[in-house]
Amino acid sequence: MRVTTTTRLACPSEEVFDTLADLRNETQWNSRVSSAELESAEPIELGSRFAVVNGGTAYEVTITTYERPSLLVLEASGNPALTIAYTFAPTDDGTQLESDFEFRPRGVLRLLFPLLAPVIRREVPKQYASLKALCER
Prior knowledge:
Radius of gyration: 14 Å
Structural class: alpha+beta
Oligomer: single chain
Order of helices and strands: EHHEEEEEEH
Distance between the termini: 33 Å
CATH architecture: 2-Layer Sandwich
């Protein structure tokens, strides 16, 4: 299942990129993320790894594309497995952020996931409103 969204933020692309690349920031804007820890060495870069708990599910997340400030791709192993591709485009007043989520559920979750899809589609814009508030303060 795919979910795609576009959000405009009144802050520079570099700032939005850095906020999203350091998954430890997710606890500040994503109410579903209860913990996010860097498992690899600083600085945050291609190959950086994080342990994240989202909605009670543990994920191992790796940065697989790091093209600051235009493209960031994260691969998350867990159930569902997930790829998140962020594209950042500068605008006159900040950044246009396009996000593409590809969910790959396994097992029983594969059967239940179509029922969860409407909830996920509603939840993503709510979380991005919190990201917008964080970036614009």
